[in-house]
């Protein structure tokens, strides 16, 4: 698998649900690609051979919350990045590159915009890595993405086409925003003491909501980040309770995240069916490399597995700590792979450092904002 093949597949968009999008995708699928790309996209691709851990690489793709105004600067000179943003403008219906480079920040922070932005910029970072260190791409045996980052990981792995995956991300982001607008909710980052009981804290917060007359209150762990590091999502009143009772709950630090809703909790249930619908319509293949699911940390096995898990992910906690253990579990004395975080921010590197310091020693961040020559 090469990056040109990945984007060659991206340009050959298939069909989506509504008529206007179908017509757009037919036009995009007429986009010229090189004969090498055509050959590569039609030939059966061999599975990768096993590599010694020290000679292998892992790519990690960030999720929502890592975005910032200025990302994408200096990346247009790499590979297919310019074409990727051109396709994104047609799929999304607005100038994503301008939004990434210039903001305004309040628009980039919106769920409907930041998810596609992080997705495209992460794959643009892969193009940069391919230019500067092609061996890192060729030796990649495993990929994982945090929340929306899973879609970028699946595109990189050859399981999805770029434009189809981007359209799915667009539908996902819009559905999640709509679900968020239905009830005041959010997400709370928590670092607790070893004796903290996060699930019991959520039970107490739900009981508090019931006492306020809130029916079917939601408060649950949304992200497992690292030992004693969690993100809890739920009704606003539940999160207020957790913050005001943080000392009794053995929480050392709490911080409300700048997101519009309680992602990866039951409050996202209205977003599941729209995502299922679009995933049924796009082409999904078995990944060429190992890609790990947020739902349980295990590898995706086939196309149906991917579709099911991506839909389930919306209402299930992101088990990132468990995923890192799956990827980096090693026997004593065995080498660790080189790890590249491709995309905005260094959040995944920070969690890796807290989960596995030995693996972190081989970590590199591939930035998405450069000083242009």
UniProtKB/TrEMBL annotation:
GO cellular component: mitochondrion
This protein's pathway: Lipid metabolism; fatty acid biosynthesis
Subcellular location per the Swiss-Prot or TrEMBL entry: Mitochondrion
InterPro entries in the record: Ac_transferase_dom_sf (IPR001227), Acyl_transferase_dom (IPR014043), Acyl_Trfase/lysoPLipase (IPR016035), Malonyl_transacylase_ACP-bd (IPR016036), Mitochondrial_malonyltrans (IPR052760)
GO biological process: fatty acid biosynthetic process
GO molecular function: [acyl-carrier-protein] S-malonyltransferase activity
Documented EC number(s): 2.3.1.39
Superkingdom, taxonomy of origin: Eukaryota
Sequence segments annotated as region (Disordered): 33-54
Keywords: Fatty acid biosynthesis, Fatty acid metabolism, Lipid biosynthesis, Lipid metabolism, Mitochondrion, Transferase, Transit peptide
Main location (coarse class): mitochondrion
SMART domains found in the cross-reference section: PKS_AT
Catalytically driven reaction(s): holo-[ACP] + malonyl-CoA = malonyl-[ACP] + CoA
Domain Malonyl-CoA:ACP transacylase (MAT): 60-369
Family assignment from sequence similarity: Belongs to the type II malonyltransferase family.
Name this polypeptide is given: Malonyl-CoA-acyl carrier protein transacylase, mitochondrial
UniProt source species: Culter alburnus
């Amino acid at each position: 698998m090469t990056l040109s093949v990945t984007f060659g597949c991206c340009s050959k968009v298939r069909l989506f649900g509504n008529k206007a999008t179908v017509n757009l995708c037919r036009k995009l699928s007429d986009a010229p690609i090189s004969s090498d790309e055509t050959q590569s996209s039609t030939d059966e691709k061999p599975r990768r051979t096993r590599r010694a851990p020290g000679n292998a690489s892992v790519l990690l793709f960030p999720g929502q919350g890592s975005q910032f105004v200025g990302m994408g600067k200096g990346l247009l000179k790499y590979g297919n990045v310019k074409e990727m943003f051109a396709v994104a403008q047609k799929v999304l219906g607005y100038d994503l590159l301008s939004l990434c480079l210039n903001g305004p920040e309040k628009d980039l922070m919106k769920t409907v915009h930041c998810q596609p932005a992080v997705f495209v910029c992460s794959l643009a970072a892969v193009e940069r890595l391919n230019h500067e260190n092609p061996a890192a791409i060729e030796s990649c045996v495993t990929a994982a993405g945090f929340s929306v980052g899973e879609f970028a990981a699946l595109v990189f792995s050859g399981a999805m086409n770029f434009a189809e995956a981007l359209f799915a991300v667009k539908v996902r982001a819009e559905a999640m925003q709509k679900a968020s607008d239905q009830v005041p909710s959010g997400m709370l980052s928590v670092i607790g003491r070893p004796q903290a009981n996060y699930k019991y804290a959520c039970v107490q917060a739900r009981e508090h909501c019931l006492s306020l007359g809130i029916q079917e209150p939601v408060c649950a762990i949304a992200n497992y980040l690292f030992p004693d590091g969690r993100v809890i999502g739920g009704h606003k009143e539940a999160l207020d309770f957790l913050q005001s009772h943080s000392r009794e709950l053995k929480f050392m630090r709490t911080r409300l995240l700048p997101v519009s809703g309680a992602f990866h909790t039951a409050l996202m249930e209205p977003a599941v069916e729209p995502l299922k619908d679009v995933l049924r319509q796009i082409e999904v293949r078995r990944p060429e490399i190992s890609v790990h699911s947020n739902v349980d940390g295990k590898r995706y096995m086939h196309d149906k597995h991917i579709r099911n898990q991506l839909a389930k992910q919306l209402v299930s906690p992101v088990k990132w700590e468990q995923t890192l253990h799956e990827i980096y579990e090693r026997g004593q004395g065995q080498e660790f792979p080189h790890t590249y975080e491709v995309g905005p921010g260094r959040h995944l590197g920070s969690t890796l450092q807290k989960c596995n310091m030995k693996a972190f020693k081989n970590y590199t961040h591939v930035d998405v904002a450069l000083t242009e020559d």
